[in-house]
């Protein structure tokens, strides 16, 4: 059960950060948005500053330490993540006009949760049984 819990969160993070060129929904320009995904067992990760650059995700490190039943949060630090996910229509704080459609990469990953858990459970079962 613990292996399924950990593996499912890892796969959820992979689903959230799979770029459009690789068959996912995450918009990709520099990879900074994908690298900004963090995991936490304490609270939702905080959003960074407008010019922050991210080195990489810590999801695997956090999930490797999870016990069954532990809470886990996944959140993007990039300040523009919400607009990229949900879209934005209007004027920003600098007076620029936007009509940006959302990519909905978070919702798509969450919708895939039952499938993700099933796939990970089958993989764990195969590894345990040696087939």
Short descriptors:
4 strands; alpha+beta; 41% helix; 6 helices; 131 residues; two-stranded antiparallel sheet
Order of helices and strands: HHEHEHEEHH
Read across the widest sheet, the strand sequence of neighbours is: 1-2
Q: Strand-residue fraction?
A: 5-15%
Instruction: Classify the secondary structure makeup into a structural class.
Output: alpha+beta
Rg of Cα set: 16 Å
Helix content: 40-55%
- Which residues form runs of ≥5 with pLDDT under 50? none
The total count of helices amounts to: 6
Number of domain units: 1
Shape: elongated
> What distance separates the N and C termini?
18 Å
Record field, number of beta strands: 4
Mean pLDDT: 96
Largest beta-sheet details: 2 strands, antiparallel
Model description:
The protein is α+β, with helices and mostly antiparallel strands. It has one domain. It is 41% helix and 14% strand. It has 6 helices and 4 strands; from the N terminus they run ααβαβαββαα. The strands form 2 sheets. A two-stranded antiparallel sheet has the order 1-2. The longest helix is centred in the last third of the chain and has 17 residues, at 113-129. It is elongated, with a radius of gyration of 16 Å.
């Amino acid at each position: 059960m613990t292996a399924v819990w950990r593996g499912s969160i890892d796969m959820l993070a992979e689903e959230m950060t799979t770029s459009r060129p690789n068959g996912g929904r995450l918009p990709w320009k520099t990879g900074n948005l994908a690298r900004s995904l963090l995991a936490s067992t304490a609270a939702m990760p905080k959003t960074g500053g407008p010019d922050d650059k991210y080195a990489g995700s810590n999801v695997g490190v956090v999930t490797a330490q999870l016990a069954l039943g532990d809470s886990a949060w996944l959140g993007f630090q990039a300040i523009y993540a919400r607009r990229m996910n949900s879209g934005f229509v209007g004027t920003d704080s600098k007076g620029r006009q936007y009509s940006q459609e959302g990519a909905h990469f978070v919702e798509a990953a969450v919708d895939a949760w039952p499938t993700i858990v099933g796939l990970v459970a089958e993989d764990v079962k195969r590894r345990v049984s040696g087939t």
